[in-house]
From TrEMBL:
All copies of domain Putative oxidoreductase/dehydrogenase Rossmann-like, residue ranges: 2-99
The protein's name: DUF2520 domain-containing protein
UniProt cross-references to Pfam families, sorted A to Z: DUF2520, Rossmann-like
InterPro entries reported in the protein's UniProt record: 6-PGluconate_DH-like_C_sf, DUF2520, NAD(P)-bd_dom_sf, OxRdtase/DH_put_Rossmann_dom, TM1727-like_C_sf
Ranges where the DUF2520 domain occurs: 128-253
TM region(s), chain numbering: none
Length: 273
């Protein structure tokens, strides 16, 4: 298919890098000239089509702007769309229905469940969360190569929960790591020691969970039912109300689902207050 990209940030460039093998890039557009120049260089695109021509010549338009600019962007280009067109956006939380329904428009939100701290130009496979009009789903299956994208349909009413899973898995994980780093600073560790000592145990934990599952991948005082150690932890965190609550909340989640009932019974009282 003939594709147009509006918004040349990290996500748009990374996705289009994988799409250009199977499809034709008609045009790239960004109000930021530096972003546009970077996209043209990385995607090896040499034309200079204006936005109206990109809209007219494309079979599918991808709006890869920040969430709060998607609707405004669509309204700005709507006057250039006269033939049937697929309109896609990459938002993880917003529905395809933010694009007004029209006779010639087939809408979809297609959210790559991944992080893009930088442009990714290496082959990999993404889970792609889709919701939208049925014709748009058929188009997505043609546009996105199976070797790089696994399409998963989502219930639009639950879309924000899918996005929350991603936020807890990535953004808030960074917040959690920041808290660990701050604790490490209190005992005199430098950032270098944090990365050398803490990150490997986190990676090992993820590896254990992948291999054994959540329950059998667990280790430590909660798993052992070591009440004395946990009491000392809570005593140390007494002056840190936020961390104290977080310790209790996360420990309770582990006890409720993952710990042997006998060990659970002896520990629950520690986390009630």
């Amino acid at each position: 298919m003939k594709l147009g990209l509006i918004g040349c940030g990290r996500v748009g460039i990374s996705i289009f890098y994988l799409l250009k093998k199977r499809n034709k890039i008609v045009g790239l557009y960004d109000i930021n000239k530096k972003n546009l120049a970077r996209a043209k260089k990385l995607l090896k695109y040499k034309k200079n089509l204006k936005i109206d021509e990109i809209c007219k010549q494309s079979d599918a338009l991808f709006i890869a702007t920040p969430d709060d600019k998607i609707v405004k962007t669509y309204k700005n280009i709507r006057k250039y769309i006269t033939a049937p067109k697929f309109i896609f956006h990459f938002s993880g939380s917003l529905s395809s229905k933010i694009i007004p329904k029209s006779k010639n428009i087939y809408r979809a939100s297609i959210h790559p469940f991944a992080t893009f701290p930088e442009v990714v130009l290496t082959p990999r496979r993404y889970f792609l969360f889709f919701e939208g009009d049925p014709p748009a789903l058929r188009a997505v299956r043609k546009i996105f190569p199976k070797e790089n994208f696994l399409i998963k349909r989502v219930n639009p009413r639950l879309k924000n929960r899918y996005h929350l899973i991603g936020v807890f898995s990535s953004n808030l994980l960074i917040g959690y790591l920041t808290l660990i780093r701050d604790l490490a600073k209190e005992i005199g560790w430098k950032d270098r020691e944090f990365y050398e000592i803490v990150i490997p145990i986190i990676e090992s934990t993820i590896k254990n969970v992948k291999k054994y599952g959540l329950k059998d991948g667990l280790s430590g005082p909660l798993k052992r039912g070591d009440k004395g150690v946990i009491k000392k932890h809570l005593e140390t965190l007494r002056a840190k109300k936020g961390l104290n609550r977080l310790y209790k909340f996360l420990s309770s989640a582990i006890l409720n689902d993952l710990v042997d009932p006998k060990a659970k019974k002896s520990l629950l009282d520690l986390f009630k207050n």
